[in-house]
Design goal:
Order of helices and strands: HH
Structural class: mainly alpha
Largest sheet: none
Distance between the termini: 12 Å
Number of helices: 2
Length: about 70
């Protein structure tokens, strides 16, 4: 249970970091001129954020299992 908790905490940080980074990158490089901010926010929250969450959880779980 300890490993899952540590993995979950790292996953939350991974979600936030991935969402902010993808928001910046989409806002910077998107060719959409009409609603660039909406595209960046929706894609960051609903696509890249969850991907970052899952990958950070897996990495955090195995890191905690190996370290502790």
């Amino acid at each position: 249970m300890k490993y899952i908790g540590i993995g979950f905490l790292i996953a939350i940080a991974g979600y936030v970091l991935t969402a902010f980074l993808s928001y910046y990158l989409i806002g910077k490089f998107s060719s959409n001129g009409h609603d660039r901010s909406v595209e960046a926010s929706m894609t960051s929250i609903f696509v890249y954020g969850p991907i970052g969450f899952v990958l950070a959880f897996i990495g955090g779980y195995f890191w905690a299992k190996h370290t502790f």
